[in-house]
Amino acid sequence: MIISKSNKNLDKNSPIALFDSGVGGLTVLKQLKEVLPNETYIYYGDTLHMPYGDKSEEQLLQYSSKIFEYFEKRNCKAVVMACNTTSSVVYEQVKDMYNFKLFSIVQAVSEVLASLDIKKLGVFATKATVESGAYNRKIAEYNPNIEVFGQFCPKWVHFVEENSMNEPKNKKEILADLEKMLENNPDKILLGCTHYPFLLDILSSGVQKDLFIDPSLYFAQYIKRYLHSKDLLATHVEEDEFYVSENPEQFVVSAQMFYKLAYLPKVLTF
Length: 270
Ligand code: DGL
Fold this sequence. Notes:
By secondary structure, the protein is an alpha/beta fold. It is 40% helix and 16% strand.
C-alpha cells in the first residue's frame, strides 16, 4: 500500500534537489538557475548506474528510491526529476510518497508540447522512455491530433558522458540517427533525454536548429510558476551542492558545456 505523504508544511528556504544518471540534468539546472536564481540547489548524478535508459522499471525504482530518501533527509522542498527516463517509468508510482513536491519533466512539459501548431512530433529519447509511451500518452491527453513517434539512440548518453561526441565516428553515428528520424518527416523533434541538448550543435549542423525542442526551459518555467503559486519561492540563497555516485573527475569534464564546476562533486553512494 502506498502511503501518501502531505507536502503542506514545506519550508520555502529549503533546497531544490535535482537528479539524473549523470550530467544530463545540468541542462535543466542551467535553466532553473536562470529563472530561479535565488534558490539553493542540490544536484545528484547517479554516474555509477548510468545509463538509466536500458534499465528495468525495478532497477529504476530502486535507484530513485534511495536518492529520494536522501533528499527527504536533507529536507528538500522540491525534487526535480531532470531525467525523462525516470519521469516516464517511475514518477506515477512515487509521486505522493515523499515529503517534498516531486516534478517530472514529462508531465510538466507535455501540455506546452501539445499546444504547438504541429502534426508530427518526433521524440529522441532513451529506450526506456520510448518503450514506456509516456510522451505519447501525456501529449494525447491534451491534444490527440498530434502524432508522436519515438526513436531511441542507445549510444548518445555515452557520447555525452565520455565527452566524445565530436570524434568523427561518433558524430557520423549521431547524424545517421538523425537521418533515420528525418525519414518520418517530423514538424519538430523533441530532445526527450536531458543529455541530448549537449548534442545540439552536431544535430543542427545539417538542419535548422529550430527543428529541435529542448524542453528544459518549459520545465524550469513550470517549476517557477508552481513554487510561486504555493508561496514557496526562497527568500535567501545558500551554496549549491553537487554529488555523484562515481567518477567525479569525468563529471566535471563532461559537464563543462552546460555547467562549469569550479570544484569536484562529492562522491555519495547509498
Ligand atoms: N538523461 C536521462 C534522461 O533524460 C537518462 C539518460 C540515461 O542515463 O540513459 O532520460
